[in-house]
Design brief:
Length: 137
Amino acid sequence: MLLRLIALIALISLSGCGALYKLDVQQGNLFDKDQVDMLKPGMSKRQVLVIMGSPSIITPFDQDRWDYVSSIRRGRGKMESKDLVLYFENEALARIEGDYFPEDPQQMIKDARKFKRQYPDEKREDDEKKRREQRQG
């Protein structure tokens, strides 16, 4: 009876551990808007590799289609995914399809504050404020 009670208490206490904190998890290719904006029709496969890195998927049946897949789950939020598909014709980039995470400045600032980091514009403003205070005081 005592052993069952101890096991029950341990089980209940362990079940609550997940409620405290859940890490952000990102999987797949890490790419952003700036990288995608650098892609231009006519680029060679090698140029695309330099900008984007290796694709997640190159099907053996269609060497002219490259898939870049990424997913992220922020804490306990829903899983977001993005898929970018590049099509080549005659070894040159022909078209780009798919989506990617739009850079949400508010989310980036929130994430930076969570890890006690400052966004570059905030840091610049803080540095300027400190310099003004030093001149005055």
